[in-house]
Specification:
The protein is of the alpha+beta class. The chain has three helices and seven strands; from the N terminus they run βααββββββα. The termini are close together. Helix content is about 30%, strand content about 35%. It has a five-stranded antiparallel sheet with strand order 1-4-5-6-3.
Length: about 140
């Protein structure tokens, strides 16, 4: 599968429950960290700038999750983001956390661009739109 962004996540002791596996809410924290890293590293728009300075929000409007396998302390998860749909002010992402034995958890996430002044949807700012289009183009190039 081609992807827009990828990173590796070490499963730490604090991610795990008493059964020794990742406590499912920790996956959502990892997901948010992955999105933040994508915006900062690949798109060039760190959340502290986008949200804090520019007052542009990127809240999750929908999140579908499938838990497929357990992850344990010490596992390394390869996390990938793929842009499935890019609209005028929202996008649908397909995200997978893969371990050595296959996909552990997968998400379909819809992010909506909003004004933090009004908390209403808005079009992507031009620089964010351009960065997303570049990321999508790079993702599509690896498909061919």
């Amino acid at each position: 599968m081609s992807f827009a962004f990828q990173r590796e996540q070490l499963v730490r002791f604090g991610h795990c429950d008493p059964a020794g596996i990742v406590f499912y809410p920790r996956y959502f924290e990892m997901l948010n960290e992955l999105i933040e890293d994508w915006f900062a590293r690949d798109l060039g728009l760190p959340f502290d700038v986008l949200i804090g300075q520019r007052q542009v929000g990127m809240p999750t409007a929908q999140l579908d999750t499938r838990f497929l396998r357990v992850s344990r302390h010490g596992d390394r998860l390869v996390q990938t983001i793929r842009i499935e749909r890019l609209g005028g002010g929202s996008m649908t992402l397909r995200i997978a956390f893969d371990g050595a034995d296959g996909t552990r958890v997968e998400f379909t996430q819809v992010l909506v661009c909003t004004s933090l002044a009004t908390h209403k949807p808005q079009a992507f700012p031009a620089d964010l739109r351009a960065a997303l289009e570049r990321s999508l183009a790079a993702q599509q190039e690896t498909n061919t």
